[in-house]
């Protein structure tokens, strides 16, 4: 919807736009193109003052992500301005870059603030405004089948036909090949998307097929698909497990896979939409871990458990050594420290008594059980507890057969850790409690960044490693 405000006294006219994020961005780019014939490099977004936080993100992380991804300059005014027509306080966010970069950045900003009503957009003259969009459609209530999931794969309007095919032939073939229900959302939705319902394995296959179709169709038009946006519907009872305490797990997933993850506050048919944006391979990896977190939480609540699952087995264990002198800090008063980590990361966690590990005089063993993402988040919290003067040492115990991949050929992986993160990683030759000791030392920040990769590599090696000498890089 478009509304031009009849204020001719000012040097500019204001245009109010209402629609989906994609519709708003398209209209934004079109208006700038027609008004300035593409010769414009600045636009201003006016955001309701009470909703700035959702758009900016904690510590400005949302805006930082937009700057880095789209190479635009963003500047948020500190002072609010009053809109006499809407009678609201607003903050001014200025974007600088090419028209294409600003449109891409605007789309990301709108989605990052998906829990708020988008504010007003302006580009000197004319002024533009964005309004709220409708709720997510084509969402079903959670199935009694705990294996069933719902995923929405966003599709650009100009590529919808390629996904549907002539008389629906393509989308039907996708459904048959993947074994799950696949349909294209109706035209009155906030944006077009492929709705996929079935077991997670089936949905994953369907997403890969849709992505391949998008790549082929886009290439035929002279374009390419650099990023995708997929919405995974998180069951109500599993939301806490996905978020983690103060967003710890979501933050870990974002940093690990370099994707944007936004979990909306509004519930739809017993679900909370979780939107993941980025390169397709990384989006799918992040979705895998989110699905594992959801399944783990649901199974824990219902008492249902599987002997095994593809991907990250819920029975997987990470063993961490913490200095004996720091054990009290980790445990906390009456065990509150351990309890906080359990609740924040949705893991089973226990610290063994010193008498249970007499071989270790200076360390205590902490056993963490849960999904890979949950264990990685728990380790990050442990590192914060044991760090001193912003320096820490991560110690992990891993089966001897699984350290070869971590070392790499001629120590290549250890060298990568040093060069990429500045982390000193060592694999000790002597076994401890039937395991190899892996240590990583350095500044807390860099060790915390490297820890998820170390944990993953330490447990995913497929072949036993050859005899290992002490390796230090």
From TrEMBL:
InterPro entries linked: KH_dom, KH_dom_type_1, KH_dom_type_1_sf
K Homology domain residues: 39-114, 147-215, 226-295, 314-387, 390-459
Record-linked PROSITE patterns: KH_TYPE_1 (PS50084)
Keyword terms of this UniProt record: Repeat, RNA-binding
Keyword Repeat: yes
Pfam families: KH_1 (PF00013)
GO molecular function: RNA binding
Keyword presence, Repeat: yes
PANTHER family according to UniProt: KH DOMAIN CONTAINING RNA BINDING PROTEIN
Name the UniProt record assigns to this protein: K Homology domain-containing protein
